[in-house]
Design brief:
mainly beta, three-stranded antiparallel β-sheet
């Protein structure tokens, strides 16, 4: 993905459990987020719920490269670890069994582009120059085979078209707490082999 690096915005690539029987205390999420109002810009996070409370393990990553160009963001999730890779280099790893035992929900792969209401991610927000865009060149998805410890490629979407019937669900009229925008279908399209939000 690549970013316009507009202050006060967030661009993301993440996994999220949305139910059934969704419960705040069973939250499951793994994130890559770009938050240009922070000094490090690149942010990783892992939310997990034990059933009685929700916790999160967050960490900023100093990539020190031009994020307005395309870079590869990878999440490797197995029963043994979660690894975040940036341009094929491991930048973070979580192997804590106490965390991984609760990171057990089926998750949806998601992307979004939004305006946070909280500090420091909303510092210096200035909407002049809108509209802004977030770009995704491709997404590749593999499943983990527990019997042989290998990943098996399931599909790769190079966004020659938008498959919003079988592969992707495009939100329309939805938002969430601490977000100053509403996601609408007309703001999601493919152009020149890229997904644009």
């Amino acid at each position: 993905m690549r970013s316009g690096l507009h202050k006060g915005t967030v661009q993301s690539f993440f996994t999220w459990w949305d139910g059934p029987n969704w419960d705040y205390n069973e939250w499951n999420e793994i994130d890559w987020e770009l938050a240009p109002s922070t000094s490090e810009t690149t942010f990783t996070n892992l939310y997990y719920g034990t059933g009685s409370y929700r916790a999160n393990l967050d960490q900023y990553i100093n990539t020190d490269v031009d994020l307005t160009q395309f870079h590869t963001y990878e999440i490797e999730w197995t029963p043994h670890h979660v690894i975040w890779r940036f341009d094929n280099y491991e930048v973070r790893r979580v192997e804590d069994p106490a965390v991984l035992v609760h990171l057990d929900k089926y998750k949806t792969l998601m992307m979004n582009f939004w305006v946070p209401t909280f500090n420091p991610w909303n510092i210096d927000f200035d909407p002049s120059g809108w509209p802004w865009q977030a770009h995704y060149d491709w997404v590749e998805f593999s499943t983990y085979n527990t019997s042989n410890g290998q990943f098996e490629l399931q599909w790769k979407d190079e966004f020659d078209s938008l498959d919003d019937t079988n592969r992707w669900f495009v939100s329309d009229g939805w938002t969430f707490e601490s977000n100053d925008v509403t996601f609408v279908r007309s703001n999601v399209f493919v152009e020149n082999g890229e997904l644009v939000l």
